[in-house]
Amino acid sequence: MLLGKKRKLGRRIEEITVGEKLSFSEKVEDKDLLLYLGITDDANPLYIQHDYASQTPFEKPIVPSVMLTGMMTSAISKYLPGPGSHVMSQTIEFTKPVYHYSTVEFLFEVIEVNREGHFVAIHVSAFNEKNETVINGVLKVCPPYRLEEIHARALDNF
Asked: What DSSP character marks residue 140?
């Protein structure tokens, strides 16, 4: 149990400003795809079977869109705003497929800070190795709340 232990939290809403940016790249490896597909029990042949995918307009297996979404939400949880954040809603367009072994460059930019509603809007775009846009969207994110220090009274509910 983590009760009373220090936790590193991301930045408060007061510390976030419009125009802040974050970029990072992610290479999609076999191990990542296999872990994702195993955890979700997803056996879509478009994601794993070269013989099937070769007969589609994609021509080769693609990375599941929800796996790419996971990469985006992971960046929110780790970096912008950071630990304690929560994605409240998302509007995402996957403009081109992402293929196995691709390196995807993500760019996040804070486009709105709403202190009253306690959320930030973050535009996200992602590009493949050819600098083609593969993702375009907006995430509505609740930054971490600052909690009171835990005192003995907090244990009354246990």
From this structure: E
